[in-house]
Write a structure and sequence with these properties.
The complex is a heterodimer. By secondary structure, chain A is an all-alpha fold. Helix content of chain A is 74%, strand content 0%. Chain A has ten helices and no strands. The two termini of chain A are 25 Å apart. Chain B is mostly helical. Chain B folds into two domains: 74 residues, no CATH class; 176 residues, MetI-like (MetI-like fold, Orthogonal Bundle). Chain B is 79% helix and 0% strand. Chain B is built from 15 helices and no strands. In chain B, helix 8 packs across helix 10, helix 8 runs antiparallel to helix 12 and helix 12 packs across helix 13. Chain B starts with a helix and ends with a helix. Classes of the chains: A mainly alpha, B mainly alpha. At the A-B interface, helix 4, helix 5, helix 8, helix 9 and helix 10 of A face helix 1, helix 6, helix 7, helix 8 and helix 12 of B.
Chain lengths: 278, 318
């Protein structure tokens, strides 16, 4: 673990990514308690404020403190990203392993379901579901997780297929180990590397989708702050003040850039063979 | 023969995927909380009106029958009627689709126009300043969500610098006016792809330039420019074409945002307005259209592999 982070740190790109990721994590974890104002507290008199000592990042069209809202939005983004990826990783890995061990028909059935789910561009699928079922954090998490499951499932299946007949698993079988034990203790740890890389590279994707859905007004329900809603509020009041847009766009840029650079460096550190240019 | 069988199996998978997608979209209507007729007509609708509407929409029939009917209608190209205006949804989609398609195509055009020369330069000058700057900038533009790019472009070029008209399309304006209004939305979609294409092309060009036939050309004294653009570019372009094809889905998703940010008509604005007014049939239809376009493009790209690179077809013969 330390060796991997060391290798990430040694690449300039990885170092920048790691620093940005840590900054975003800090903002999301200790930002909200540190924030000087309630993120939803209105103060109409102080609306459209530029950054100042009282409001570090300025205020929005209702006079809400942008730093407090950005920190709160960071927490939402991280919550959505991490829980989505956790669900997709768990279910995808299980389905992938199941597909590798299933009968040819079972395998084909799982792969066709993967194909159908992948046929929906994630955003359009999420848009459709949320539009029909109503907005909500839990729905956003569930939908995006579903669309990411095939990602993890395909990689898990390929990895399992390549390891299925390897001598160390054969040995376990000969020794009489139960299938679930072989899977949990010997197979999963050995296929996890590429899956973790994939997970880290999907984090910025999920952050983008959450922000996109919130931007369209079908993600995180108001008045809860999300970087997407901040951006949308700023967009509609762009002629009065550029600050909300600058803050929200800046945060989204730093976060997605940080996680992308970190993911690429992590991939190179764990398994350079995974590198598919670009 | 193998190739024919492959095409056949690929077509069958595509058909299965499309039917699955229709089923999924249909299934979503089943889990709408409450009665869909009530949701569409609003809380003040009388029970009689709700019942009459349910009957007219076929909502009181068994689920299997409704699905069969839905599938049959989709196959016939009948996506139902808009509940607000009563117009056929197919007409509404057909009206706005050209705007979305022209936006997507201009974005691809821009991406190729800038990405290909950049990739060629980077491959022939690896490690140069432009190569390194292009690599850094392209990761940035790939990572940043395109609606963020769109809003930043809008803020910088339309609001601050006032170089481009801010919003909308010009239905009757001159070609120049129309292009000016297309420029920023298309650029917001293309920026990520310029870097992506440049990186992809750089990698595959470097591979091709290392091959023996290129060395022979160099030995014959053929100019480097001719080698790159005439002999190496074509085989090196295959992965780029593939990725561009697969990227159509992402581009369509991005086009939704570009249309909303720049207030252009198109599938994106149609969906957005339909969501805002809870016009479910329109949402459903748009999702189906986007999924259909996406699946068909994927199919075309997949089938074109073998055609683009004879080696792939040969490998499949074996």
């Amino acid at each position: 673990m330390r060796a991997v982070f060391g290798r990430v740190w040694r690449q300039p790109v990885g170092r920048l990514g790691l620093l940005l990721v840590v900054a975003v994590l800090l903002l999301g974890v200790i930002g909200p308690p540190l924030a000087p104002y309630d993120p939803n507290k209105l103060n109409i008199l102080a609306r459209f404020g530029a950054p100042s000592t009282a409001h570090w990042l300025g205020t929005d069209h209702l006079g809400r403190d942008l730093f407090s809202r950005t920190a709160d939005g960071g927490r939402v983004a991280l919550l959505v990203a991490l829980s989505t990826i956790a669900i997709a990783l768990a279910v995808g890995t299980l389905l992938g392993i199941a597909a590798a061990y299933a009968s040819p028909w079972g395998e084909r059935a799982i792969l066709v379901v993967f194909d159908i789910v992948s046929a929906f561009p994630t955003l359009v699928f999420a848009l459709a579901v949320v539009a029909l079922l109503g907005p909500g954090l839990d729905k956003v998490i569930l939908i995006v997780a579903i669309t990411l499951i095939p990602h993890f499932g395909r990689v898990a299946r390929a990895q399992t297929l390549s390891l299925r007949n390897s001598p160390f698993l054969e040995a376990e079988r000969v020794l009489g180990a139960q299938p679930w034990r072989i899977t949990a203790h010997h197979l999963v740890p050995n296929i996890l590397g590429p899956l973790v890389v994939l997970a880290s590279m999907d984090i910025p994707v999920v952050i983008t989708i959450e922000a996109g859905l919130s931007f369209l007004g079908v993600g995180v329900p108001p008045p809860r702050a999300s970087w997407g809603t901040l951006l949308h509020d700023g967009y509609t009041t762009l002629s009065q003040s550029p600050w909300p847009v600058i803050v929200a766009a800046g945060m989204l840029t730093l976060a997605t850039l940080g996680f992308t650079l970190f993911g690429e460096a992590l991939r190179d550190a764990i398994d350079p063979k995974l590198r598919v240019e670009p | 023969m193998r190739l024919l069988r492959r095409i056949g199996s690929r077509l069958a998978t595509t058909a299965l995927v499309l039917v699955g997608a229709v089923a999924l979209v249909f299934a979503l209507t089943l889990v709408i909380p409450g009665n869909p007729a009530q949701a569409l007509l609003g809380p003040r609708a009388t029970p009689e009106a709700v019942q009459a509407f349910s009957h007219a929409m076929g909502l009181d029939r068994p689920v299997a029958e409704r699905f069969a009917l839905f599938l049959w209608n989709v196959l016939r190209g009948d996506l139902g009627n808009d509940v607000v205006s009563g117009r056929p949804i197919v007409t509404m989609v057909a009206e706005v689709l050209p705007y979305t398609v022209s936006l997507t195509l201009s974005a691809i055009g821009l991406a190729i126009l800038f990405g290909v020369p950049l990739g060629c330069y980077a491959a022939t000058h690896p490690g140069s300043l432009i190569d390194r700057v292009a690599a850094a900038v392209s990761i940035g533009f790939i990572a940043i969500p395109n609606f963020v790019v769109a809003i930043l472009l809008l803020m910088i070029f339309s609001v601050w610098l006032d170089w481009f008209p801010v919003l909308g399309v010009s239905r009757s304006g001159t070609l120049g006016d129309q292009l000016a209004r297309l420029a920023l939305p298309a650029l917001s979609l293309a920026l990520g792809w310029i870097g992506y294409i440049a990186r992809l092309l750089r990698a595959s060009l470097l591979d091709v330039l290392g091959e023996a036939h290129i060395r022979t050309l160099r030995a014959y004294g053929v100019a480097e420019r001719v080698i790159v653009y005439k002999y190496a570019l074509k085989p090196a372009a295959i992965p780029t074409v593939a990725v561009l094809g697969l990227g159509v889905g992402r581009l369509l998703g991005g086009a939704i945002f570009a249309e909303i940010v720049f207030a252009r008509p198109g599938i994106g604005t149609l969906v957005y307005d339909a969501i805002a007014s809870r016009n479910y049939p329109v949402v459903q239809a748009c999702v189906l259209v986007v999924v259909g376009l996406f699946t068909l493009t994927n199919l075309l790209v997949d089938l074109s592999y073998a055609w683009l690179d004879p080696r792939i077809a040969k490998a499949e013969e074996r």
